[in-house]
């Protein structure tokens, strides 16, 4: 039973990040822009946020660094596709390849880095629910971020 709870927790951790990204891509497609470079943007934002937290110890600065890196890459994509009229497919794939390569290159330094200790919190009564309780009590904002950043 504990194995199923851990599987459910891992699924929720990994799926949350992907669901939010897919929602943003859906809005892009409704606007008429196809962005194939979202994975590269996410990888660069993840390594920027992780590096900021490792160096500063501040979750807020890590969030801002990740948002800034993602915004810079999205702005580059927007300038290239919307203003300069480049091909959306080629530009998105190039951005995806750049993001994967850059995050792998910059992330070599952070392979064995440990984040500072975080506060643990618990919702009263949630842990008592079978299967769902242990799975949901294992989910924190930091575990979702770690799933996105470290396991890549």
How do the helices and strands line up, and which of them pair or pack?
Blueprint: H1 2-30, H2 38-56, H3 59-83, H4 88-107, H5 132-137, H6 141-149
Written description of the protein model:
The protein is an all-alpha fold and 152 residues long. The chain has one domain. 71% of the residues lie in helices and 0% in strands. The protein has six helices and no strands. Helix 1 crosses helix 6, helix 2 packs antiparallel against helix 3 and helix 2 runs parallel beside helix 4. The longest helix is centred in the first third of the chain and has 29 residues. The mean pLDDT is 82.
In short:
The chain has 152 residues and is mainly alpha-helical. Helix content is 71%, strand content 0%.
Strand segment tally: 0
Main beta-sheet annotation: none
**What is the overall number of helices?**
6
Series of H and E elements: HHHHHH
Notable traits:
single chain; 152 residues; mainly alpha; 71% helix
């Amino acid at each position: 039973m504990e194995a199923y709870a851990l599987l459910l927790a891992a699924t929720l951790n990994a799926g949350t990040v992907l669901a939010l990204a897919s929602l943003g891509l859906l809005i892009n497609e409704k606007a008429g822009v196809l962005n194939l470079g979202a994975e590269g943007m996410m990888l660069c934002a993840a390594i920027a946020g992780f590096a900021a937290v490792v160096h500063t110890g501040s979750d807020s600065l890590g969030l801002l660094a990740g948002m800034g890196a993602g915004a810079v890459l999205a702005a580059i994509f927007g300038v290239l596709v919307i203003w300069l009229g480049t091909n959306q497919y080629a530009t998105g794939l190039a951005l995806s390849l750049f993001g994967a390569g850059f995050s792998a290159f910059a992330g070599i330094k952070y392979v064995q880095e440990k984040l500072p200790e975080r506060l643990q919190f618990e919702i009263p009564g949630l842990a008592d629910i079978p299967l769902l309780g242990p799975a949901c009590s294992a989910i924190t904002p930091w575990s979702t971020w770690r799933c996105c950043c470290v396991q890549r």
